[in-house]
Automatic annotation (TrEMBL):
This is Guanidinium exporter. The lineage of its organism: Bacteria, Pseudomonadati, Pseudomonadota, Gammaproteobacteria, Lysobacterales. Belongs to the drug/metabolite transporter (DMT) superfamily. Small multidrug resistance (SMR) (TC 2.A.7.1) family. Gdx/SugE subfamily. The keyword tRNA processing does not apply. It comes from Stenotrophomonas ginsengisoli. Its main location: membrane. It comes from the Bacteria. It holds the Pfam family Multi_Drug_Res. It is a multi-pass membrane protein. Keywords: Cell membrane, Membrane, Transmembrane, Transmembrane helix, Transport.
């Protein structure tokens, strides 16, 4: 169950990062509220996952899901550039996540 909590926490991290961008520095109330609510939800789920997962594993995977998810959402929804170097960076992050998952007992 901890891995499910961690996955959901990571997905909520993508949502709050995206809504924070849309809030334009918290100047738009609806995206700002979505940011705060999903941020709290993400932290709560991360804390629940950390009950049984090691700190390093949980935190690394949580931030990795958020980073790669935000990267993909930025490309798809915001038209951010796709360059070989950015793709390579995302591949390295995912590789690290896979290794971290495989190393978890």
């Amino acid at each position: 169950m901890a891995w499910i909590y961690l996955l959901l926490a990571g997905l909520l991290e993508v949502v709050w990062a995206y809504s924070m961008k849309l809030s334009e520095g918290f100047s738009k109330p609806v995206p700002a509220a979505i940011t705060v609510v999903t941020m709290i939800g993400s932290f709560v789920l991360l804390a629940m996952a950390m009950r049984s997962l090691p700190l390093g594993t949980a935190y690394t995977i949580w931030t990795g899901i958020g980073a790669v998810g935000a990267f993909i959402l930025g490309i798809v929804a915001l038209g951010e550039p796709v360059t070989p170097m950015r793709i390579a960076a995302a591949v390295l992050i995912v590789s690290g996540l896979v290794l971290m998952k495989l190393s978890a007992a």
